[in-house]
């Protein structure tokens, strides 16, 4: 079973026991490739946003397929510590232990697909350099305003659609002397205004490790600030950075053109040049895609739960708040626990501490009973942690 090409791509592997998970993924607009049984050879040739598997099928996956995925989740029946250890060694970031409340599982999948844990701690840098992108067979000019390992922002007068896939051509002058291409999904659009280009925000598709290294090098090269690069200054070796040069004052063809001049050219483009050959529109309506992304921004994963509070993974919504109401999904057969928390900023890479306010005695006793029975485990390279799926209840600011 497969769905929209513009939606997050998921490989789901099971023997029938994850039918409820397949139904939830379909509701979330995921492009599901579902295998009843093991993976097939061509699965290792696809870049997956998420590989989700039963524990049995997860432990059978070849290394090549695991490397082709951006994030991995296994679903486990029971409490087997041996199986959890094996899943960690197989590079699965999350292990979900059944039974799980359907509403809580939906929030976890939503978070993984549209804001996933793999997007944390990814620096974004300003660039301000011209490049080209393709939509279908047509090639267009744009300004690369910002870039990270996970996505970018483009200034362009060309039209695009939410959920559309564009192919960015990162020029040699920005990429250490060797150009490369990367595909991205349009997740947000700020339309063009009179006299200025529009802004497209893209999430990169899961990419090969070699492309990830090259993206990281581009980000590193511009961590000191935006600039334009001259062809003479670029080197063929990667990682770099090459030397940075001031942008020339006049536009000229090629990757060394002035960012300011290209912006002026884009703003002056005639209306008839703004048409864009769109790839077939995905079955998932664009408004639904944005709605899911906004809904996902309300989901927070936390750890180190106690009666005093918990440590949350970094979240833009938390960074803008000092106090919030949260729903904590703790049990498979009970409503979530609603609490009020004070947000205390974290230090370094650690997320904020969420300190409980006015926790009733009965609520504290409920927490005590559940501390050893939570159903989401963070695996990966670090020590195993028990996670809490939280939902922000307060309306967004602004």
Task: Report how far apart the termini are.
Answer: 40 Å
CATH architecture of the largest domain: Beta Barrel
Assigned CATH superfamily of the largest domain:
predicted glycosyltransferase like domains
- SSE pattern, N- to C-terminal: EHEEHHEHEHEEEEEEHHHEEHEEEHEE
Number of helices: 10
**Model regions low in confidence, pLDDT < 50 over at least 5 residues:** 1-5, 117-121, 226-259, 269-287
CATH topology of the largest domain: Thrombin, subunit H
Shape: globular
Mean pLDDT: 75
Class derived from helix and strand content: alpha+beta
Radius of gyration: 23 Å
Overall number of structural domains: 3
Number of strands: 18
How is the biggest beta sheet arranged? Answer: 6 strands, antiparallel, barrel
């Amino acid at each position: 079973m497969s769905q929209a090409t513009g939606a997050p791509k998921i490989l789901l592997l099971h023997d029938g026991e994850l039918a409820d998970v397949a139904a939830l993924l379909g509701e979330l607009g995921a492009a599901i490739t579902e295998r009843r049984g093991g993976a097939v050879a061509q699965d290792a040739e696809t870049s997956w946003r998420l590989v989700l598997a039963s524990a049995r099928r997860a432990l059978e996956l070849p290394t090549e397929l695991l490397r082709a995925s951006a994030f991995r989740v296994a679903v486990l029946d029971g409490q087997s510590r041996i199986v959890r250890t094996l899943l960690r060694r197989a590079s699965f970031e999350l292990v979900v232990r059944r039974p799980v409340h359907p509403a809580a599982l939906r929030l976890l999948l939503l978070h993984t697909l549209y804001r996933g844990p793999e997007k944390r701690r990814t620096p974004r840098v300003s660039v301000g350099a011209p490049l080209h992108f393709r939509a279908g067979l047509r090639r267009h000019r744009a300004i690369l305003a910002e870039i990270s390992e996970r996505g970018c922002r483009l200034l362009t007068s060309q039209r695009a659609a939410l959920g559309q896939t564009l192919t960015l051509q990162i020029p040699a002058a920005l990429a250490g002397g060797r150009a490369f291409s990367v595909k991205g999904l349009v997740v947000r659009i700020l339309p063009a205004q009179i006299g200025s280009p529009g802004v497209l925000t893209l999430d990169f598709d899961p990419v090969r490790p070699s492309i990830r290294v090259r993206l990281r090098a581009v980000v590193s090269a511009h961590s000191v600030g935006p600039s334009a690069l001259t062809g003479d200054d670029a080197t063929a070796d990667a990682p770099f950075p090459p030397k940075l040069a001031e942008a020339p004052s006049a536009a000229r063809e090629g990757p060394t053109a002035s960012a300011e001049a290209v912006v002026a050219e884009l703003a002056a483009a005639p209306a008839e040049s703004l048409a864009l050959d769109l790839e077939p529109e995905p079955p998932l309506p664009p408004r639904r895609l944005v709605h899911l992304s906004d809904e996902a921004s309300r989901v927070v994963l936390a750890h180190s739960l106690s009666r005093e509070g918990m440590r949350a993974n970094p979240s833009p919504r938390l960074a803008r708040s000092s106090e919030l109401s949260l729903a904590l999904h703790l049990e498979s057969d009970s409503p979530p626990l609603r609490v009020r928390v004070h947000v205390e900023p974290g230090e370094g890479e650690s997320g904020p501490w969420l300190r409980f306010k006015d926790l009733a005695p009965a609520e504290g006793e409920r927490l005590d009973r559940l501390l050893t029975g939570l159903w989401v485990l963070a695996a990966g390279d670090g020590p195993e942690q028990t996670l809490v799926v939280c939902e922000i209840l307060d309306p967004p600011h602004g």
